[in-house]
Amino acid sequence: MRKLIAAALCLAATVTATGCGASVESSKEAKSHAVTLTNCGKKVTYDKVPQRVVTNDVGITELMFALGLENRMAGFAMPDDKGDLTDVPWKDAYDKVKWLSKDRLTKENVLDARADLVFAGWSYGFREDSGFTPEALKKLGIPTYILTESCRNGRTKTSRGIMPPLDALYADLTNLGKLFGVEKRAAALIADFKRQVATTVAKAPAHRPKVFLYDSGQDQPLSSGRYGAPDEIISKAGGDNVMHDVDDSWTTVGWESVVERNPDVIVVCNYSDVSAEQKRKFLLSYAPLRNVSAVKHKRIFVLDYVDLVESPRNPSAIVRLGGYLRAAAQQR
User: Secretion signal: which residues (predicted)?
Assistant: First the structure.
């Protein structure tokens, strides 16, 4: 398993005096009154503050941890290919909250956990083919919250993304802050994230490198369009996502389009049984890419999965990728 990057993410000194596992702010109103939020463009009312939240996948789970809400969780589901959790900023929270499944959530483990809220997303747990959907859980009396990065936009049955990726991150932190009565912590996190991003944007190179995000796949690569977190991570870091014109978040594209757009840098998403080094070797040896600038100059940068899906690690990823892109621009 690979180490997940932990640098500059605890934020304890700037956000709260209680550390990464902050206490929930006292709020009689939050505890006793219904809360209405806008989630995926719809008004959703929660009758009470959830006490037994179940989450799906690493980025969603760490949104809860970043807000100090591990005490409100009954468990999480996460494949064990998302990195070594021993060095993460929220190690204590991971140790405290039950790991329910090393696959996706199911109705069975949600019911076994006596969940009173499921926080997941389309393709981050919610799927029609498995019958695990917000509608199905509603019939069981279990409310849901959908990760904003994954909200479906109506362009096709499954295309996702309704707002720029960082706006999605900030929207979810704001909504969760309101739902759980931790508005101040949410606002402090957002302010710190915006500061990190703005500092990196100010250093962006005059010549912006073209960047391709490579997740996986050999016949057809899985990449990210304008609504996936990588698009704005690349943009704020000082590059241009060559798949920005794709109106989706995570989706397959064609190698022909990659060759045509000739990226200067390729960012590899590190996860799964296929290591980042194996992906790098494939890209460097794949004949159709031999004349692509990033391949010719071996400009391949690795970020972990959790850096590249909506998560509290996105700003740190922007900072790190920004440094690499500035160095790449100077080499031109």
Answer: 1-22
Three-class SS state of 84: strand
**Any residues with CB less than 8 A from the CB of 15 and at least 6 apart, and which?**
22, 185, 188, 189, 192
- 116 contacts: CB under 8 Å, gap ≥ 6: 48, 50, 51, 52, 53, 142, 143
| Tokens representing residue 321 in the block | 């990728």
Q: Are 74 and 98 in contact (CB under 8 A)?
A: yes
Give 95's contacts (C-beta < 8 A, 6+ positions apart).
Answer: none
Task: Judge whether residue 237 has pLDDT over 50.
Answer: yes
Q: Evaluate whether residue 2 is within a structural domain.
A: no
The HSE-up count of residue 24 (CA atoms within 13 Å, CB side) is 21
| CATH assignment at residue 185 | 3.40.50.1980
Do residues 112 and 142 share a domain? yes
Q: Domain tally for the chain? A: 2
For the segment 68-104, what is each residue's pLDDT rounded down to a tens digit?
Answer: 999 999 999 998 876 667 788 899 999 999 999 999 9
Q: What is the Cα–Cα distance from 177 to 186, expressed in whole angstroms?
A: 5
E strand or H helix that includes residue 184: helix 183-201
User: Residues of 289-300 as b/e, b for ≥16 C-beta within 10 angstroms?
Assistant: beebbbbeeebb
3-class SS shares of the chain: helix, strand, coil, % to 5: 40, 20, 40
pLDDT in tens, 104-136: 999 999 999 999 999 999 999 999 999 999 999
Asked if residue 1 belongs to a domain, the reply is no
* Residue-range definition of the domain harbouring residue 104: 12-196
Cβ contact 188:14 at 8 Å: yes
Q: What global pTM score does this model have?
A: 0.88
* Residues 65, 15: Cα–Cα separation, whole Å: 13
